[in-house]
Amino acid sequence: MSVLRPLDKQPGLNTATILLVGTEDALLQQLADSMLKEDCASELKVHLARSLPLPSNVNRPRIDLIVFVVNLHSKYSLRNVEESLRHVDATFFLGKVGFLATGAGRESHCSVHRNTIVRLAHTYRSPLLFCDLEGTLLHIPEFEPRCILRPCRAGIFSPLLRMKKHVQEAGRLAQ
Amino acid sequence: MDSYDTPESTPRHSASSRLKDYFIGATPLQKRLESVRKQTSFIPTPPRRKIPQCSQLQEDNDPQKVAFLLHKQWTLYSLTPLYKFSYTNLKEYSRLLSAFIAAEKQKGLAVEVGEDFNIKVTFSTLLGMKGTQRDPEAFLVQILSKSQLPSENREHKVLWTGWFCCIFGDSLLETVSEDFTCVPLFLANGAETNTAIVGTWFQKTFDCYFSPLAINAFNLSWMAAMWTACKMDQYMAATEFLWSVPCSPQSLDISYAIHPEDAKALWDSVHKTPGEVTQEEVDLFMDCLYSHFHRHFKIHLSATRLVRVSTAVASAHTDGKIKILCHKYLIGVLAYLTELAIFQID
Question: Is cis: bond before B136, omega within 30 of 0?
Answer without folding.
Answer: no
